[in-house]
């Protein structure tokens, strides 16, 4: 039994250090932010598409902010998905106020499709420009150069996808700390693999791609029946090393309103994990290997310490645990500076343990669930 535990502990440690140093560390320590760009006189136009359901309170603040973006040619298309609040009246007022604003009002969603994918498809179909930039109604770009930063890989490098970071507002309380840690860790995952030329997901809070590619692939064909996945599953299905770029710059991020109670947060994450079971096999393998080794690392470490009859094995285990925690801290610190322009992170080992529990509990529930909803 003891030999098996040590074998598992060292194997899991090796996998963890490989991921931390070679995958996540490569992005955290060696990725260089985009250089400053001088826009050409007549750059390609960009359409911002937002699917919104009962989001009048958020749209009231968001649309005027988007109109301040410092980009020569863009429009904002909001798809009002069967809302029963004041969204339609508000959107009509915006249409009269801003010449580059348009609204699409949905009265009915066909039964064979999911509502958000249907709303996004309509918005992208009516978009005037060939570059589509997606965000949500409760998101806010932190910079006036958000459009310029997010569209740069498509305009300048002829990419199909540009993957951005969507963070959450910092609020008091344990739940918000968990959300901050989980969101940053998720970003490190997909930015690191994107930097390794192996992209596997993006977030709809901050995602850019070509309209013609979307239409060529017949929108969300074969994904209509899946609730969620309008962002990560679409990217997972079509993103490749040759057509995808990451955009890691403090001016490129969006900030969203986080959930404020555990029930809503668990519902949201359950939906995210539900979509994850439809990832490509190779992507589930590379994510699953890290997550499984993470679980084995902590479980085997705990059992060795509990069953130890002397201080020597405890010292070895604690030494490796602290060494891993130190490496993880500096990786998260450096990655956050690249993504958000600030690097302070606290209690990484504590939240790492909480993340492990959350991942396996909610991940299992989401994977097995057959009933998830957008709104």
UniProtKB/TrEMBL annotation:
Q: Where is the Glycosyltransferase 2-like domain?
A: 47-164
**Pfam families attached to this UniProt entry:** Glycos_transf_2
Transmembrane parts of this sequence: 6-29, 287-308, 314-333, 345-368
* Record keywords, A-Z: Membrane, Transmembrane, Transmembrane helix
User: What Gene3D superfamilies is this protein classified in?
Assistant: Spore Coat Polysaccharide Biosynthesis Protein SpsA, Chain A
**PANTHER family, from UniProt?**
GLYCOSYLTRANSFERASE (PTHR43685), GLYCOSYLTRANSFERASE 2-LIKE DOMAIN-CONTAINING PROTEIN (PTHR43685:SF2)
Q: What is this protein called?
A: Glycosyltransferase
């Amino acid at each position: 039994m003891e030999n098996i535990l040590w074998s598992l502990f060292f194997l899991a440690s090796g996998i963890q250090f490989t991921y931390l140093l070679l995958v996540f560390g490569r992005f955290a320590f060696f990725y260089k932010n985009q250089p400053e760009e001088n826009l050409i006189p007549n750059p390609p136009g960009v359409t911002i598409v937002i699917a919104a359901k009962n989001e009048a309170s958020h749209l009231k603040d968001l649309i005027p902010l988007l109109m301040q973006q410092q980009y020569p040619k863009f429009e904002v298309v909001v798809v009002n998905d069967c809302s029963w609040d004041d969204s339609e009246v508000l959107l009509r007022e915006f249409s009269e106020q801003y010449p580059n604003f348009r609204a699409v009002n949905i009265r009915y969603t066909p039964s064979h499709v999911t509502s958000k994918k249907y709303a996004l498809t309509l918005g992208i179909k009516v978009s005037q420009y060939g570059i589509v930039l997606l965000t949500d109604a409760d998101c806010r770009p932190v910079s006036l150069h958000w459009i310029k930063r997010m569209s740069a890989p498509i305009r300048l490098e002829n990419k199909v996808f540009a993957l951005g970071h969507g963070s959450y507002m910092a609020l008091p309380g344990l739940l918000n700390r968990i959300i901050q840690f989980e969101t940053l860790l998720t970003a490190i995952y997909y930015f690191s693999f994107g930097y390794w030329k192996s992209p596997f997901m993006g977030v709809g809070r901050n995602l850019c791609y070509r309209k013609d590619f979307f239409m060529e692939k017949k929108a969300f064909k074969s994904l209509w029946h899946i609730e969620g996945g309008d962002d990560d599953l679409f990217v997972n299905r079509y993103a490749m090393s040759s057509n995808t770029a990451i955009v890691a710059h403090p001016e490129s991020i969006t900030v969203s309103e986080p959930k404020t109670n555990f029930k809503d947060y668990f519902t949201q994450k359950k939906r995210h994990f539900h979509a994850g079971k439809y990832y490509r096999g190779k992507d589930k393998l590379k994510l699953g290997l890290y997550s499984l080794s993470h679980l084995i690392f902590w479980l085997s470490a705990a059992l060795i310490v509990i069953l130890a009859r002397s201080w020597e094995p405890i010292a070895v285990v604690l030494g490796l645990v602290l060494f891993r925690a130190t490496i993880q801290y500096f990786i998260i610190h450096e990655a956050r500076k690249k993504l958000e322009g600030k690097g302070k992170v606290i209690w990484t080992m504590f939240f790492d343990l909480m993340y492990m529990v959350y991942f396996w509990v909610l991940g299992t529930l989401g994977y097995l669930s057959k009933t998830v909803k957008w709104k």
